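On clarity, I found the account of how folds are encoded harder to follow than it need be. What matters is that the chain and its backbone geometry are given together, residue for residue. The format is easy to grasp once an entry is in front of the reader. For illustration, here is how one protein appears when written out as sequence plus structure tokens.
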Amino acid sequence: MADQINYGSIPPEWPFPVKYDTENRIETDVLVIGAGVAGSMAGLMAARRGVKVAVVDKAPIGISGSGGAGLDHYLGCHSNPDCAVTPEEYMVLPPQGSFDGRSGDHRSYIQMKGSWDNLLELERLGLKFRDEDGEFAGAPFRDSETKIMYAYDYKTKDTIRLRGGAHIKKHMRDGLAKEKNVTLFERVMITQLLTEDGKQGARVVGATGLNEETGEFYVFSAKSVIMNTAGVSMQGTGTWTFNSEMFGNGYRSDPRNTGDGIAMAWKAGVEFLSEEQFGQKVYTGPFGWPWYGIGNSDNTWHPCTLVDNKGKEIPWTDVYGNPISAMKDRTLPAEGQPYMGHTRPSPYIDPERVKSGEYELPLWADLSALPEDERRAIWGLMVGNEGKTRISIYDYFNKAGFNPDKDMLQCPVMNPEVYGNRRKDWFQGEPNNNKFWKADTLRGIATDWNQMSNVEGLFASGAEAGTGGAGAGSSGAYAGNRAAEFAMKAEQGRISEAQIAAEKERVYAPVGRMNDPEACVGWKELWMGMARVMQQDCGDFRTPVLCQHGLMWLDSIKKHEMRMTYARNPHELARVLECESRITVAEVYLYLCLANFKAAEEGAGQDKCMFGKLVDGELITTYKEDKWWLKPPYAATYLENYEKCRALEKGGQVL
């Protein structure tokens, strides 16, 4: 019998040349870290200002980021000509649900104000969103003149369906590749921000990186840096849950979003907004259902009819609990509701009516009960373009014989939760006593009207500036312009060779331990241990003492297990470094909790706290009343500030 190979100790031959000793020095004007929807648009707009731009992503840019798998709708496009609510009106109206999508400050306004111009730029790059061939002519969601198709709220018209959203990132990469001022670096993981003279809180002057295929080291020197690494993803960062083999399951966020940007910004002395935002563990984590392969009628499948196992229709109600009988009312705000937002009408049954036998589980999403245009819009436009569904759901289900004209898909049982009208499974029970935090829980880096952080020269866009999804593009475009303007006036900063040397030593340490018998911890074990700390010490019930215990536990892991990790090739090395970022992100969450406890003790309230940085081991917090990011010379209104900051834009296509 042939000897069997134990791949646990002997990995397959690495297919790329390994060049751990190679160092590449790159000098640019603007460095864009992360090239998802926000980062790609940031790089494009910065380059059009005439500055030299380096765009870096640890994945292929044509599929990277949370938009890399596709987008079915463009949310928050309040500047489109047909929208019934302007960005200015939106900012003063009460939020509609906890998942409103706004950060409640100027960052939301920036995203909304530039959203329509950004969509037109995407159209010029090749993205299709109009119904040019009249496939949906006469549908209630289609405008006959502009041929634009809207989703969810057919009255407000703030969300636009995308015909070619599955390929949005390909169009953006192609656009970047055509810009003569842009250099693309793919499969390069940024590991640390470089600051002037290596001092925390000093002006950012570049970053270091690692090539995940060859192991080469990169040193980027830049006049300004834009952070677009998408914040924190529940399935990517896995701060509370661990399952490496089920990375891609669950909700939309890219599993590569492992919190690297949050970690490096925290270490550089960047301040973050501190609001907590709890969410749904059965949907968003690695064990969650693939949302668009089941009938989630409150999102992509809206306004799908639900029936019980005997075919009895589940009644719909508006946001005030009033019954809805007409199909059209499912797509309109309730009487007295200014706009739908994320507080949408939805089907609902009281669990007691299930227990009594009036309704029989499971529930089913019945597309056949919808008008034909609604049915084709869901199973085609929406499911055919949304992230993680084009192949895994739409193509596979169709090949398996699924027919939306007659077949149904199982739907999660619905029950009201504290998050507006968002629902989750009530019959599955709680896996433990911890309520895991929603993807992108951190509200992002605190930025001013130029989208620059408290660290000079460091800008942020997309989820890291409080705006995600399709609207990240307008946030990125704005940040790209502002970072370019900064670079036009700035000189190259002083890079610290000592800081580079220390980072290189940290990065390659797991490779150097390959012959160390004490190096017995792989990246998965390191990740799993960190997740256990957060489950125990940062769950639904927390106290300052418990948070301090969590920080002590994480510090112990850093001093012991993290120094026992190994990497057999550049791929594993990148995974180990991601786990080190995860540990830093976990520390950030715990410090966030402590900052909010401190704010409550001082009578400020959690919504008034802005937590900042560690200085000599001490947590420094500030309060929103200070509003350093909104101090003079800023004007009084959103519109005045927006126009004031855009006044320097000249020539070319700028947003």
The chain has three domains: 23-235+440-489, 236-282+515-623, 288-411.
